[in-house]
Amino acid sequence: MRRRYFLTLAGSGIAAAGLAACGSDSGSGGGDGSAGGEVEVFTWWAQGSEKAGLDALVAQFKKDYPDYTFVNGSVAGGAGSAAKDMLQSRLQAGDPPDTFQAHAGEELSDYIAAAQIEDVSDLYEEYGLTDVFPEDLLALLTVEDKIYSVPSNIHRSNVVWTNIALLEAAGIDPTAVPADVDAFIADVQKAADSGVTGLSIGTTWTQVNLLEAILMADLGSEAYNGLWTGDTDWTTPEITTALEQFKTLISLTNGDRDGLDWTDATQMQIDGTAAYNVMGDWAVASFQQADWTGGEDFGFYPLSGGEAIFGFLADSFTLPVGAPNPDGAKAWLDTISSKEGQLGFSLAKGSIPARTDVETDEFPDYQQTAIESYGQDTICPSLAHGAATPVRWLNDISDATSQFTTGASDVAGYQEQLASIAEKNLSA
């Protein structure tokens, strides 16, 4: 029987289940909106396919609850770093939005500990979500028998994207999937030798996304997950190898990376100046918006070391303590968890639905493969996107990574820093 490895949240159990597609009746996804009023929805979806996904949700929300007025509280900045800082300031000042975006998993632990978000378990019963979300997703969301957010989708973080024309020009077979990270590096080097950027990348969070993909591939699921529980030692030779590979790949990226976001790095591929990019599957929506076709213009595969791993994250929404319009927030949670909301959102954003009863015939090739992989592969929670660690731990790793990629790139010093960060956060 296939095993899935998740971080255990406060003793919650984990059960395995795949994401299947079937065609049962619609979820609640509607209401009379009798309470009305403004509903401020706080996200970091301010550009590109993220904004397109938000627009799809807003359109559905207006259909479901026409008496409510959507207020866009988005703050630009990939992976939400700027948004999270502003959000924390507002929460501490007693000025919460009606609902805010967060990543499902350990990212929520700080908000829970600070009593800043409400238990929404009753909504799972009211909206019929317990029956349509996979058991392993429910387990990830559950903290001491309570659930504090509602997911709108599921994303994969460890995807390699390729510009097929540039690979062919460099003499690389675009249909061949590298067997491991070293083979991937060899292909990136070959592409760079042809005169283009080997691997496009952006600011710090995209670099952490690359780091986590390497760690997943090199360590395998059990050892990777052990990094966040204390079961895997950060000082091992395997970690050293992964960090050396990270250093090599960073040397093959664009020099202006720290001034770019993920959309800029993806645009480099679309513009034909970069061969590879390692990014979550929201990137596919950018390719689709550029009228690129999978298998013809761009390719994709998970960065692998042999084990089939699905780097997991899920966008979710909360009910903040003291929300000005809690009924409006609940209406938003209803829409984003409905079949219609999840279908429209994922089609626009490149993700897959969290619900198991959404018809998937409309999804293009990449999403079809993601649905299959989510049902078959071992699941690893994303570091860069809040599933693996609390925010403070991710922030510490991000700071260390920024110092490493902008400084002398001392692998020994970087590894020592990461080990110290783990020790500090595990003992907190």
TrEMBL record:
Leader peptide range in chain numbering: 1-20
Coiled-coil ranges from the UniProt annotation: none
InterPro entries found in the cross-reference section: Bact_solute-bd_prot1, SBP
Subcellular location: Cell envelope
Principal location: other
Assigned keywords, A-Z: Signal, Transport
SUPFAM superfamilies assigned: Periplasmic binding protein-like II
Pfam families with a match to the protein in the record: SBP_bac_1 (PF01547)
Functional summary from the UniProt entry: Part of a binding-protein-dependent transport system for a sugar.
Family stated for the protein in its record: Belongs to the bacterial solute-binding protein 1 family.
Full protein name: Probable sugar-binding periplasmic protein
Natural source organism: Brachybacterium fresconis
Species classification: Bacteria, Bacillati, Actinomycetota, Actinomycetes, Micrococcales
